[in-house]
Amino acid sequence: MLVVKIGGSQGVALGPICADLGALIQQGQKVVVVHGGSAETNEISARLGHPPRFVTSVSGFTSRYTNRATLEIFAMVTNGRINTLLVEQLQKFGVNAFGLSGVDGRLMMAQRKEAIRIVENGRQRMLRDDYTGKIEQVNAALLRLLLEAGLTPVIAPLAISPAGEVVNVDADRAAAMVAGAVQAEQLVILTNVPGLMRNYPDENTLIPHLPRIGLEQALSFAEGRMKKKVLGASEALDLGVSKVIFADGRVEHPVLDALAGKGTVIS
Amino acid sequence: MLVVKIGGSQGVALGPICADLGALIQQGQKVVVVHGGSAETNEISARLGHPPRFVTSVSGFTSRYTNRATLEIFAMVTNGRINTLLVEQLQKFGVNAFGLSGVDGRLMMAQRKEAIRIVENGRQRMLRDDYTGKIEQVNAALLRLLLEAGLTPVIAPLAISPAGEVVNVDADRAAAMVAGAVQAEQLVILTNVPGLMRNYPDENTLIPHLPRIGLEQALSFAEGRMKKKVLGASEALDLGVSKVIFADGRVEHPVLDALAGKGTVIS
Fold first, then answer.
1. Closest residue of chain B to A152, computed from CA coordinates
2. Looking at the partner chain, which of B47, B99, B158 has a beta carbon nearest the beta carbon of A48?
3. Which of A7-11, A143-147, B141-145 has the lowest mean pLDDT?
4. Residue A184 contacts residue A239 (beta carbons within 8 Å)
5. Which candidate in B35, B44, B91 is best for mutational testing of the A interface (most A CBs within 10 A)?
6. Which residues of A touch B98 (CB under 8 A)?
């Protein structure tokens, strides 16, 4: 079993990714896809007169500030636009893709972060109207049901809280939880950089292989959104995934290259 | 088996509909939900600087003119916003709802209408860049798989063409095809009027019961979007559904009232 996370950042090319996935699935590989959607959500939010806002937690992680209006736009773009068009592209490559989000059939249950302590202009304050969540459980039986029916699940990064509210979840960490739940051997995280760099953005400092023990240190030098990917990698390994690969989603064979060891291999 | 189509028109209240569905499903009723989304698609299209456009075919049916840009907005709003929020509401009423569109797992296969002959300013012309389709096949096995897993499918009105393109389909006729495929006894079509009226909008001319044989005549006096509902009713009956009910989606118990015979019962 392989889990592939397709980043929502600008530059990631869906065509080559879908072509690679088509080839792998035709060879009998079972795949679950998880996608993001930050770049398109930002663009559509701005066009709807609701520009995105990001906050930084006290521990230094950046995330989208998601009040209810933002959540509804995020759901619309990720689960409606990105998910549907990704399923369409995969279908064109012969993959019987099946789009869903963590809300459907309660696939991903998350604890809503009722209050987040953020740093703003150098000062700490609490944010209370946020609809962001941390996934606590993935319904693996539901994914197996789809996979056994010959379908390839394509998952949008939404989850549902115990109170039945939709929440926005981090797609990298969602992919890690999914990979753990379906006992994937490998998790490929495609993004718009070649992998983890010791001194971002200097590509000469790309780390080709990171032992598991190096992850904690990596958290300190990873920049911006890469921090969450490192956290996701750590969570996936903890859940029994053998190998996590951060790889370039902009190349001709993004998934095949990653499986051949290009990028940053963490194991 | 019961199929309920929830109209996308203004005034249709989701809360009472979801409450009714929750009560029915708790009693063991199997339900498939199909929804529309025209009002919200119009609103969001306009906000995105892409106002909706409707065309009238030579046979007098009104439909959304759907070029690729419109299709992507329609997919985003119906499959992302409306579907996700409807699944959320149903989950709050204890229904393990599962949102999908006809693209997922090729649930609904449609022939794309490559060219539509329309009437514009009294003159006929052909429209060739339209992504509207007519459903030809519904994958009933996929719906049964979900229903047997205790899930309630909630279907957005998109389908996939044999070439793998997403197409916009009429939600009333989609509901009719789904009802036929799952061999539903009843199809309830909820809208923002009390039912079929002989002289729309005079509610005193509401038709409480229409025999099957009266459908052809009804096509001639049904106004605007009601025409497609009449066509859908006719298709559902042809596919073996025993009873189609057009009912008011704005009341306190929209589904229970419909099942009790309020609205227009066609059988």
1. B105
2. B47
3. A7-11
4. no
5. B91
6. 100, 104-105
- Write the DSSP assignment of B72-126 as a string of letters: HHHHIIIIIIIHHHHHHHHHHTT--EEEEETTGGG-EEEEE-S-EEEEETTEEEE
How many interchain CB pairs under 8 A, A with B? 123
Which residue in B76, B103, B151 is closest to A81 by CB distance? Answer: B76
Which residue segments constitute the domains of chain A, with CATH numbers given? 2-266 (3.40.1160.10)
Are B99 and A98 a contacting pair at CB < 8 A?
A: no
- pLDDT tens, residue by residue, B165-217: 999 999 999 999 999 999 999 999 999 999 999 999 999 999 999 999 999 99
User: Which tokens sit at A78?
Assistant: 């990720």
Q: Which residue has the tokens 């896809």?
A: A33
Identify from B76, B112, B131, B165 which residue to disrupt to test chain A contact, counting A C-beta atoms within 10 A and taking the largest count: B76
Answer yes or no: pTM beyond 0.90: yes
> Which residue's structure tokens are 């929020």?
B85
Say if residue A113's pLDDT is above 90: no
Omega within 30 of 0 (cis) for the link into B211: no
Neighbours of B74 (CB within 10 A): 28
Q: How far is A32 from chain B (nearest CA, A)?
A: 14
Contact criterion met (CB < 8 Å) for B105 and A76: no
Return d(Cα A235, Cα A178) in angstroms, integer: 11
Give the span between the Cα atoms of A40 and A229, in whole angstroms: 19
Phi, psi (deg, nearest 5) at residue A170: -70, 130
Phi and psi angles of residue A32, each rounded to the nearest 5 degrees, phi first:
-120, 130
> Shortest Cα distance from B103 to chain A (angstroms)?
7
CB distance B185 to B242 below 8 Å: yes
* Tokens coding B74: 């329609």
Instruction: Please write the tens of the pLDDT for every residue from B93-149.
Output: 999 999 999 999 999 999 998 788 999 888 999 988 899 999 999 999 999 999 999
Task: Quote the CA–CA distance of A18 and A86 in Å, as a whole number.
Answer: 8
A25-68 pLDDT, tens digit each: 999 999 999 999 988 999 999 999 999 888 988 888 888 889 99
**Of residues B80, B98, B165, nearest to A79 (C-beta):** B80
Give the 3-state secondary structure of residue A97.
strand
Give the residue from A40, A101, A33 showing the smallest Cα distance to B84.
Answer: A101
